[in-house]
Design a protein that fits this description.
Blueprint (H helix, E strand, L loop, with lengths): L28 H15 L3 H11 L8 H14 L3 H12 L7 H17 L3 H14 L6 H12 L3 H8 L4 H14 L5 H14 L4 H4 L3 H8 L7 E6 L6 H17 L6 E6 L6 H10 L4 E3 L4 H7 L8 E3 L12 E3 L4 H13 L5 E7 L2 H16 L3 E8 L3 H11 L2 H15 L15 E5 L2 H13 L7 E3 L20 E5 L20 H25 L5 E2 L4 E4 L5 E4 L1 E6 L2 E4 L15
Parallel strand pairs: 1-2, 1-3, 3-4, 4-5, 6-7, 6-8, 8-9, 9-10
Antiparallel strand pairs: 10-14, 11-12, 12-13, 14-15
Length: 584
């Protein structure tokens, strides 16, 4: 399970709240040994074996070790990507008599928060960790405080706004500290100054008494701001419009920062016979950082070179190494797919079908979703690419929903009985959602077909490529509702993100490239932080940015949908059956 763009993946070591049971008369030697073996198996990453041990020897026998076993089972199920079972074990633990003890209430909450964090449900995790802040005994809150801060940093700006409405002073303090890091108009040094002023005004807040690690690291590298930046892009030719949009976004962010700014040089890659010569020209400027190149083949070539200066390439390769000084930041569908899978799995949705138009880019994205689904233990029930004609769409949807099999069974019965059978073909029941690849005008032809075949409760999920333009006036609301898609915060009309981008581009893809350019400037200033502190997160125009071990910057986008023709934020419990409901 994933969370490179939404958070850190679970470590195999047990959280502090899980510990060996006390030696009591109701715990047999066999049970104690089984629990020790289960813990060892968990720490080695063998989660299924952990579940087998506790299921066979500990969960069914009342004892003082039972609560520990259920919590261990819940964490193991989460690591096996089964949110439904994880929450079921947690609920069963909460029904035990031992769960009424205040210390065990805290352990239940901590385990619940850990499960929510694993599945990327950061808003709920923040609320639980805030409760623990008030309930944990003195001296036991340090680990919870660190996890609370990471959860706050994973919140989208929309989620931050929702929490501010609650008007909880302690929580608002954490949100205010996060806002300092989210303010794109401030340099690193200015952020440190604002934070110190906040500490003076809030001396008793936990973040003032023990500052988040981000600020501690920033203090050690506050002089990291670059003096010279080179943009290395194809400013003429086929990619000229894309490059210009990136440059526009870069300078919007550049002029938005109120500080002494770096000198910027633009190298037009199109003026050089090869990327090596363009890179040599960029290196002659002795830059602190280079932004570019944009074309994938050029990125592949420089990945094999010795790079004397940091390079943030605006594309990435199918197989990414991490040579010294090479980073990748781009508009790829992989981050969108990961966020959608995480979003669905929070409610136990793990069975998907793929439906795609037949364009080359769409088929590539289909492959990307299938690969991500396999890693995340999501079952693909059907994979259909269709000709974009009325008959092509109808045949694909029928095949995806197994309607054609229903018709075949009806014909077989009629042949066997010799009589006409009056029946209605209904869709399959083993499907949580359809991952759709196409544009909005394509999708609005598919949604009515799903509804027609009684699949109206099945949502369609899509990457930002679906949102190529706003719905036209002739579009019926019901034809685009229950379609969820990812989008960069900069393109959301109600976004409260503090950016200087203006919506001057008519094309959504060019607006996203503007956002990419704006965030490239932020990364030019802050990329050393990600190396020094791997948990660093920046809330920016393209989403919440993190970096993985291969030097790839990932972005956590927003998830949107249409309601009555307007773009609104989606919540997963609107579209997926919850883990609790699935047991009823």
């Amino acid at each position: 399970m994933p969370t490179s763009n939404t958070g850190a993946s679970q470590e195999r070591t047990l959280p502090p709240s899980i510990y060996s049971p006390n030696k009591t008369s109701d715990v047999s030697t066999e049970q104690a040994n089984a629990y020790t073996a289960a813990k060892a198996s968990y720490e080695q990453g063998d989660y299924q074996n952990t579940l087998d041990i506790v299921e066979n020897t500990l969960l069914g026998t009342p004892s003082s070790i039972q609560l520990d076993a259920y919590l261990l089972a819940a964490l193991s199920a989460a690591n096996l990507d089964n949110a439904t079972n994880a929450l079921r074990y947690l609920n069963q633990a909460g029904q035990l008599p031992a769960a009424r003890h205040p210390d065990n209430q805290n352990r239940l909450q901590d385990t619940h928060a850990t499960i929510l964090e694993y599945f990327g449900n950061w808003l709920a995790a923040v609320n639980l960790r805030m409760d623990l802040t008030y309930n944990l005994p003195l001296g036991e809150g340090e680990d919870n405080q660190a996890k609370l801060w990471l959860a706050v940093q994973n919140l989208t700006q929309q989620e931050i706004s929702e929490l501010y409405i609650k008007q909880k002073p302690l929580l608002n303090g954490w949100l205010a500290v996060s806002d300092i890091l989210r303010n794109q108009a401030l340099s690193t040094e200015q952020q440190l100054t604002v934070f110190e002023r906040w500490r003076v005004d809030n001396p008793d807040h936990p973040a003032a008494l023990s500052p988040p690690l981000d600020f501690q690291v920033m203090t050690s590298v506050k002089e990291m701001a670059p003096q010279r930046i080179v943009l290395m892009l194809p400013m003429t030719g086929q990619l000229a419009r894309a490059s210009q949009a990136i440059v526009d976004g870069f300078f919007a962010s550049y002029y938005n920062q109120k500080e002494a700014k770096a000198s910027v040089h633009i190298i037009n890659v199109s003026h050089y016979s090869n990327i090596n010569d363009a890179l040599a020209a960029a290196n002659e400027k002795q830059p602190d950082v280079i932004i570019g190149p944009l074309q994938k083949n050029n990125v592949a070539q420089i990945s094999r070179l010795d790079l004397p200066y940091p390079v943030i390439a605006l594309n990435q390769l199918d197989i990414n190494q991490h040579p010294k000084n090479l980073y990748h930041f781009s508009l790829t569908a992989e981050d969108d797919i990961q966020e959608l899978i995480t979003f669905a799995k929070q409610e136990g949705a793990t069975k998907a079908a793929i439906l795609s138009i037949q364009d080359t880019w769409a088929l590539k994205q289909s492959d990307e979703f299938r690969a991500a689904a396999e890693k995340a233990n999501v079952t693909i029930t059907s994979n259909q690419a269709y000709a974009n004609t009325p008959l092509g769409r109808q045949n694909a949807v029928q095949s995806l929903l197994l309607i054609n099999e229903s018709y075949a069974r009806k014909r077989l019965v009629e042949q066997w009985s010799g009589e006409k059978v009056d029946s209605i073909a209904r869709s399959r029941k083993d499907l949580d959602y359809v991952y759709y690849i196409g544009k909005l005008d394509d999708a609005k032809q598919i949604r009515p077909l799903l509804d027609f075949y009684f699949a109206d409760q099945i949502p369609m999920l899509a990457s930002s490529t679906l949102n190529d333009s706003a719905p036209d006036r002739s579009t019926k609301d019901e034809d685009i509702e229950r379609i969820l898609f990812t989008e960069a915060p900069a393109l959301i009309p109600t976004s409260k993100i503090d950016n200087a981008l203006t919506k001057i581009q008519s094309s959504n893809i060019l607006q996203r490239l503007q956002a990419l350019g704006a965030d490239a400037y932020l990364l030019a200033n802050k990329h050393p932080l990600f190396t020094l502190l791997p948990s660093t997160k920046i809330s920016a125009n393209t989403g919440i940015i993190t970096m993985d071990e291969n030097g790839i910057f990932h972005k956590r986008p927003e998830i949107m949908t249409y309601r009555k023709g307007s773009l609104v934020h989606a919540t997963n419990n609107q579209f997926f059956q919850s883990a609790e409901d699935s047991e009823k």
